[in-house]
# Entry
Amino acid sequence: METLEEELSALRRRLQDAPRRVRVLEERLLESKDRLAQAASQNQKLSAAIEETREQLALLRDEVEKLTAPPNPFGTVLQINEDGTADVFTGGRKMRVNVEPTIEIKELERGQEVYLNEAFTVVGTRHFDSGGEVVTVKEVMSDGRLIILGRADEERVVEQAGVLDGVFLRVGDHIRIDPKTGLAFEKLVRPEVEELVLEEVPDITYHQIGGLGGQIEAIQDAVELPYVHKDRFDEYFLAAPKGVLLYGPPGCGKTLIAKAVANSLAQAVAAKTGDEDIRSYFLNIKGPELLNKYVGETERQIRLIFQRAKEKSDEGVPVIVFFDEMDSLFRIRGSGVSSDVESTIVPQLLAELDGVETLKNVIIIGASNREDLIDPAILRPGRLDVKIKIERPGPEQAGAIFSRYLTADLPIHADEVSEAGGGDVHKAVQVMAERAVEEMYRTDEANEFLEITYQNGDKEIMYFKDFASGAMIENIVRRAKKEAIKRLISTGEKGIRSEDLWAAVHQEYKEHEDLPNTTNPDDWAKISGKKGERIVFVRTLVRDQDEDDDPTGGRSIAQVQTGQYL
# Structure
């Protein structure tokens, strides 16, 4: 009995102690779970570290392979063969090599660079090489090969790389070649010719030229009629003139007329053919820029210019070759003081002019202030057939020129519109121009400019009007506009007045007082358009002006300084 009681007592104690033990076991279970979670986390970190290490090992293995791999030589594709191989140039040798299957052999082009492995198999492609030598095309052969001129005029035959497929090449073009492979890669721009040639047609029209109606009609007869009415000329067995010379004093519209010719000719041909897209070309040759210090370079550029004209005329459109300042290039042979370049330049032009017979739709126009300095062989009939003198404008021509620059769409002062035009702005502008012309062409003492002494002893007084030009009239209107703007800014008074034009005329004349050159009076007179008896002395008649710039002020006579004009 006692034993049972002891066991019962022990069981009661255990039962009472069971919750505590359960709590202890639960705490141990939680602790085990935490340790298990920590172990799992550490296991993941170790796995990630191992994976990262594997990746680093792979990268290092790749780097080692790259560093220890043999070099890949470059090669240039020369030809693609039907059996899937390629002929390449590498290391100074031509080789027939295989192409890796992953490379589309049809995409390989002649002249393209490729990668080769140690077995000389094409394993990669590159772009075309961008370096090489610059040479000149001498001839384009029927099979597409090129005869070129290299260093010291050495001739060589090269083939065109694939990058030049569809590129038009002509004799005289500069190209880039690889002398090792014998391939041409690029057509280069020729700045020494392109800068001298303006192929676009100027937008100048005859309507923008005032006071030169007779000269415009003459050049239309010489240039436009033979092309617009070619059938009529053929019926009469009349050949078109080869060239036209425009000569006269500076600033009177020679260059302006030449620019308008191309535009008018294009419009006339388009009207005849009904093709609005047809055009003409205007090759503007800046004379002095053709001169070169190297012997034969100027002649070469002249040949290139006429070659360009022939290429353009072959398109069936008229081409005008315009030589500005013609006397600077084609002077009388033997007239050179320190050089004799004209002895070869002039014959080159003569040969080209005589060859113009084979050039259809080409006409030469020259402009010069000193036609007496141009070699007579150029001016003879059959070369520059038509010679048109551009005179200084008279009062009537000056009025026409004023109408081109002083127009009704300009701001005209209200007083001028009401007083001079009676409310009509067009009439006001016309009256203002007439007043300006009257002021310009006065022959009173205030407008005396020069006293000229001829070789026979005679003297002549020349007025400012004797040196008028279209460029001067344009500058007068420009001055008047600027004066009107200054008045608007200072006083708020808007519009051009007649007084602005008068002041501009006086200011323009005043600035010309110091321009005549007395070092060589006869040469100066020829440039200015004064011909006839030889001039031996020139002096200016300078007026002393008061503070109000009164044109009727006192006068004095002074000899000008030399050397400013020529």
About this structure: The chain has a mean pLDDT of 81. The longest strand covers residues 535-543. The domain at 206-389 is CATH 3.40.50.300 (Rossmann fold).
